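Hypothesis: this fold can be encoded by more than one sequence.
Test: take the structure tokens below, design a sequence, compare later.
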């Protein structure tokens, strides 16, 4: 099924966002499989047939949710790249932004992320979408860590990849900790996370 072309881009984008908001809420409350297009259409206040003018499937909706999340993340990275300080200082100063994003259970965004990860274990298309997004995110981090302002710009590729994967693992794990331990706060996380992240962003001592 092909989506319909729209003559008014602004109206089409508004409708798309309306569907994405409704879908994210449905995924959060009912899970991916229980949230059918009929349920999404009711939440969006439009017919299922109308929704198909913008998205050909639930996977297409998930793809757009991921794209929106990536756009927000790229905006954060661009903000880091535009700052005059060295990379270590910029990333440590901006660490709270990443912590907030990965512990934001109040808006439901984290619940949707968990649902998409669960679906990736069953759905190869969703898994591919998430892996592609992760690749783009790791490439952005690689650009920062190999820039001239980075004190680890000259480390070998294997070590660089290892550090990036550990950094991403720690940040992604914050969501699970928040779900299992709801009393966890950004402030308590940052007490230990700042020095740990500083170690990962500086040259290792030779032994």
């Amino acid at each position: 099924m092909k989506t319909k072309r729209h003559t008014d881009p602004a109206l089409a984008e508004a409708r798309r966002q309306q569907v994405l908001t409704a879908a994210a809420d449905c995924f959060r409350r009912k899970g991916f499989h229980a949230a059918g297009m009929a349920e999404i259409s009711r939440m969006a206040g439009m017919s299922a047939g109308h929704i198909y003018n913008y998205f050909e499937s639930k996977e297409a909706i998930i793809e757009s949710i991921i794209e929106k999340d990536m756009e927000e993340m790229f905006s954060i990275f661009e903000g880091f790249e535009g700052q005059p300080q060295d990379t270590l200082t910029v990333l440590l100063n901006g660490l709270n932004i990443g912590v907030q994003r990965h512990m934001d259970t109040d808006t439901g965004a984290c619940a949707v992320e968990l649902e998409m990860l669960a679906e990736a274990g069953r759905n190869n298309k969703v898994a591919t979408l998430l892996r592609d997004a992760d690749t783009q995110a790791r490439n952005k981090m690689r650009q920062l860590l190999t820039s001239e302002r980075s004190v680890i710009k000259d480390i070998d590729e294997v070590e660089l990849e290892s550090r990036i994967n550990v950094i991403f693992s720690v940040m992604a794990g914050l969501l699970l900790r928040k779900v299992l331990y709801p009393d966890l706060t950004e402030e308590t996380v940052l007490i230990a996370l700042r020095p740990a992240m500083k170690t990962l962003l500086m040259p290792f001592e030779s032994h």
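Residues 141 and 164 are 7 Å apart (CA to CA). The domain at 1-56 is CATH 1.10.10.60 (Arc Repressor Mutant, subunit A).
Hypothesis status: open.
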